[in-house]
Fold this sequence. Notes:
Structural class: mainly alpha
Shape: globular
Distance between the termini: 63 Å
Amino acid sequence: MAPHFTAPLVLIPILIFWVWRRVRSQFGLQPIRRKRMIVRIAIFGVLGVVVALSAMHDMRLLAGFGGGIVAGAALGLLGLRLSRFEIDPVKGDCYVPNPYIGALVTVLFLGRLLWRYPLLMQQMQDSTGAPSPISGPPLGQSPLTLALFGLFVGYYICYYAGLLIHHQRILQGRPES
């Protein structure tokens, strides 16, 4: 099998599984898992720093990424205000996220990646150096792509950090038994 066919065969099932898990986590009662949330905050923080450092060569890219971070943080705060917190006898401390905000962020980010996917595949297949019939900057060199990635990173860092802070306040307010 040709190498340019193996990348989509591997990536597409992984992306479908990732989207299914992401969308599933936007509905219903979700247990607060402190360690997982801290790890996710750290991963998104590292990814954000790496992308910001790689975008420093072009101010348009950095501005797009920074604007996305700010918009994502604002959406994260809105998502926190619209989330409900409950105590389940089996799961313990839980939250019910607003399904529309998290799904919107995920769909915007994935939509942009799918929009840019043909260009990426064309660049991977074209080894002759001939001009590509699909025009546009590579995947990581578009201010819109970086803005949507910044929205994704800013939203999840702000949302998970807010959940952890709120959960800590709940724990401190409980009488000790």
